Amino acid sequence: MSSSTSGGSTTLTTGTGKSDAGRQRGSGGSFMAGPVGRNLGLVVALVILCAVGIYTAGDRFADVDNILTILRLASVIGVVSIGMTFVIIGGGIDLSVGALVALASVWATTLATQQLAEDVHWIVMVFTALVVGAVAGLVNGVVIAYGKLAAFIATLAMLAAARGLAEIIANRRTQIVRDSDFLAFFSGDVLGVPTLVLIFALVAVAGWVLLNRTTFGRRTFAVGGNAEAARLAGIRVQRHTVKLYVLSGITCGIAAVMIMARTTTGSSTHGGLYELDAIAAVVIGGTLLIGGRGTIVGTVLGVLIFTTLGNVFTLNNLSSSAQAVARGVIIILAVMLQQQLATGGLNFRRRPSSGVSSGGPAVTGSPSGSVSGGTTAEGGPGGTRPTATGTGTGTGKTL
Amino acid sequence: MSATRQRPFRRLPYATVALLSAGVLVAGCTSNTPEESGGGGGANEAASANDEPGETVTIGFSAPAADHGWMAGITEAARAEAEKYEDVELVVAEGTNDVSTQISQVETFINDGVDAIVLLPFDGAAMTPVALQAMEAGIPVINVDREFDSPFAARATILGDNYGMGVSAGTYVCEQLGDNPDAVVAEIAGIDSLPLTQDRSQGFADALADCGLNVDNRVAADFTVEGGEEAAANLLQAAPQIDAIWNHDDDQGVGVLAAIQNAGRDEFFMVGGAGSANAMRAIQEGNSVLQATVIYPSTQGADGIALARLVAQDKNLSDVASQEVPRQIVLNAPVVTADNVDQYIDSAFES
């Protein structure tokens, strides 16, 4: 990931705010700047959930241990969702994440691996999980980028194959992690913060930096927004696509290590339906399923909302069926609220100039894209922004 | 533009080679060699004249996919049981969770003219017609665990007792807490939409009601380790003070115990369910909150094989005065504690 393309990015930015390439460039730059505004719907949803939790469960909810429990439960799916965010922004989808978590967890806990870990160090288990995730992600990426298969199909195939392979390796047994040092390290805490939560935080911050502060991130937006334009702009789209799936695979490997610590086992049943949980979190986090737009902060909020929901329901002794219904409702409400806020702000800002691009909030990346693109390229609308977002965007852009 | 097209390949090979070589390194790690001696095949069968080899019979066996420790234990124990008889030839169909596949497996058994069929249906109702077909063709069907719709579809039925499991667990909890009507009892169920889960919960609630207790906190998991951990972690936050927990399933119990340990809680005792070897070892060691487990026998398939052999050879069930093999057997759901764990651990399944 060299930084040599910064020249290219400047060209793109100055090109025009209305061309596709310029749009992606612009959106890439502005996302880190205004996460609060863009994720307001999510923050509101989370605050409402917390208020309900405090109202119904009182001290049991607003308790440090409970907050840490929520964060700990959110951490595994959270890490997977970070990887998923990159893939989806890059215009793809990864349905194999749950299966990869299962495969990596099983591979890292076989008797042979554990024996090796015992002889050497438990880092062997971590290494194994990461490599398994990365290789599986590489296979996904190569099949998609160079084999020209639709991401949906390729990762669907990986979903089936990886879980099958996990069952074969584990012989459908639950493999207990025997290395007590491994368990002690990962289920321990640093200054009261569980290690798992720290890992999630590190991955989230690294993901944010990677997405918003590096050429890798800008290319991801560009590739997802318009692959052809990205290619014309000199981005190696295929190679970048492969990288995105490898990244997703690695986050699955990290998640596998975390789940091994959480449950003290490796099993082919781990990571069940993670693909849907992750996609749901990413989507309510404001990332467009067609790519080109999305935020890490939104994804983190999305994950937290779902985990908090489960916690609040359990604290109130409600059934998991009711919880599933609430989940569905929240997905719809969060996305609608977000669109409402986005279009509301958009109309407000756009009224003086033109209402054309603000028309279709639900359609694609165009509304938000044009907002950010417009902000950076023209400066006018940016100036009318009520919050500090505009300025943030500006500075972000000049970097 | 040609440059941009070629460049993607420039650095990719390095990454590929690096990853693949790491992969090769890691590939050596799949081995799981030290296999446990196949669990199951209870050692508690009395020798009788029935064990004398008779005419050789072929028994077809079909069960759902072994995607869960208990189900794997079923098939393993059935094989082990068949091994014990030199006059039994066991044909095991590949486990499947697809009803139409399982139907075709039974049809194959019928066409091959096996002497008896032992069937653990994925869905009892869906398998009833083909079982009837087999019975009409003169092949006795032994129905295991999940009951058919029609009494004519099976010569004999052998069932675990889900309601009885709940009763056993509830009765044990009552014995331990009986003098404390304010005790907090929690329940971690399996997949809530399954009838078997509802039966277990009903039995548990009924038994608790008998001694004036009730379930204060109830969560449902999904029979997986991960689901158990998550459900338990939330449950422990919901109830700051617990006296007893019943967890329906020992496979998910591994996760439940991990969550309990993580939360550093030990003011309660826990009762498991199904009876895995893991759980029994924990009971034996006695250093966790897991104090007992309720057995849902994974040797049902083995019983089915034994019954099929008797039926096919026109023998009677020894130790029963009446002629012929009984129509239905409902297995007991005993509570395993540190006192009697040695008696059960050999027939427990590995999760």
From TrEMBL, chain A:
Gene Ontology cellular component terms for the protein in this record: plasma membrane
The entry's keywords: Cell membrane, Membrane, Transmembrane, Transmembrane helix
Record's subcellular location: Cell membrane
Region annotated Disordered, chain positions: 1-25, 349-399
Membrane spanning stretches: 40-58, 70-89, 95-113, 120-143, 149-170, 182-211, 242-261, 296-315, 324-342
Membrane topology listed for this record: Multi-pass membrane protein
Keyword Transmembrane part of the UniProt annotation: yes
The protein's name in its UniProt record: Monosaccharide ABC transporter membrane protein, CUT2 family
Extent of Low complexity compositional bias: 1-19, 353-375
Signal sequence annotation: none
CDD domains linked to this entry: TM_PBP1_transp_AraH_like (cd06579)
The keyword Transmembrane is annotated on this UniProt entry: yes
Any one GO molecular-function label of the UniProt entry: transmembrane transporter activity
Organism: Geodermatophilus aquaeductus
Superkingdom classification of source: Bacteria
TrEMBL record, chain B:
Residues annotated as transmembrane: none
Signal found in the keyword field: yes
Keyword entries, A-Z: Signal
SUPFAM superfamilies from the UniProt entry: Periplasmic binding protein-like I
Principal localisation: other
One GO term describing the cellular component: cell envelope
Region (Disordered), start-end ranges: 33-54
GO molecular function, one term: carbohydrate binding
InterPro entries hit by this protein: Peripla_BP_I (IPR028082), SBP_2_dom (IPR025997)
Residues of the signal peptide: 1-27
Keyword Signal attached: yes
Record-linked PROSITE patterns: PROKAR_LIPOPROTEIN
Domain Periplasmic binding protein: 59-315
Subcellular location: Cell envelope
Recorded family membership: Belongs to the bacterial solute-binding protein 2 family.
Protein name (Swiss-Prot/TrEMBL): Monosaccharide ABC transporter substrate-binding protein, CUT2 family
Lineage, highest ranks first: Bacteria, Bacillati, Actinomycetota, Actinomycetes, Geodermatophilales
